[in-house]
Write a structure and sequence with these properties.
two-stranded antiparallel ribbon; single chain; two-stranded antiparallel sheet; mainly beta; 1 helix; 6 strands
């Protein structure tokens, strides 16, 4: 069976030695449930890595 791949972004935002992190708790089925993760998301179908990161 083939795997389906999806492009995603992930970044770590740091200021004055502190990092902005997300605590995943809301979804019932989530491989990242109860983990602290960086900020990110999925690419749109026609979006480049640069435009996904910059929001342009």
């Amino acid at each position: 069976m083939g795997r389906k791949y999806c492009m995603t972004t992930l970044c770590y935002i740091e200021k004055d030695g502190a990092y902005l992190m997300l605590h995943r708790v809301s979804k019932k089925i989530d491989v990242n449930k109860d983990k602290w993760i960086g900020v990110g998301g999925h690419f749109e179908a026609d979006e480049s890595p640069r435009s996904a990161f910059s929001g342009r």
